[in-house]
Design a protein that fits this description.
Largest sheet: none
Radius of gyration: 20 Å
Structural class: mainly alpha
Number of strands: 0
Order of helices and strands: HHHHHH
Shape: globular
Distance between the termini: 11 Å
Length: about 180
């Protein structure tokens, strides 16, 4: 038996999941409209993340008092900053590496989604479909010619996001009606 407080929580969770799922689907649709921009944006985002991580690592090195990891973290910070600049100033060459990372992300996400289906009694059918689609997208990216994979990357990310969003909307609607 579910009490009123749990019902309200389920409805709120359902509403926020529906909104988040809709935003993910819309992001996927926008990415499908401009797949080249998607690849360039993902590459630039990766460069920015590496730059921030590198800078934070370097700042952390100078804040530490012990020497146990300062040298390693200092080298790692410099490596991240150099890698960020290389990616930022050579986005086309970096896109090959990005394709590999995204392919790995698709496969790992799909496997984890399949593994996590047992924890959620609701929406398993869409979770399974989302997981299988991600695994197929990842394996397909690995098997493609690198040039074709770069061209398809924006569409594949869009497809993955749309399936993820619809899966989230489906689970959220089921959760909301549970409450």
């Amino acid at each position: 038996m579910i009490d009123n407080q749990q019902k309200m929580l389920l409805k709120r969770e359902g509403n926020s999941g529906i909104i988040m799922g809709a935003l993910i689907v819309l992001t996927g649709i926008f990415m499908a409209m401009a797949p080249v921009l998607t690849v360039v944006s993902l590459t630039a985002l990766m460069a920015m993340v590496l730059l921030v991580v590198g800078m934070c690592t370097l700042v952390d090195v100078f804040r530490r008092t012990g020497m146990e990891r300062r040298m390693l973290d200092g080298l790692l910070g410099v490596f991240f900053v150099i890698l960020a600049f290389l990616i930022f100033f050579n986005p086309v060459g970096s896109a090959v590496g990005l394709v590999l990372w995204v392919a790995i992300w698709f496969i790992v996400r799909g496997v984890l989604e399949l593994a996590g289906m047992g924890a959620s009694p609701y929406g398993r059918s869409f979770m399974a479909l989302d997981a299988i689609v991600n695994i197929v997208l990842g394996v397909t990216l690995f098997c493609m010619n690198p040039l074709m994979a770069q061209a398809a990357l924006g569409y594949y990310v869009a497809i993955s996001l749309m399936f993820w969003g619809f899966s989230l909307i489906h689970r959220s609607i089921l959760l909301k009606h549970l409450g």
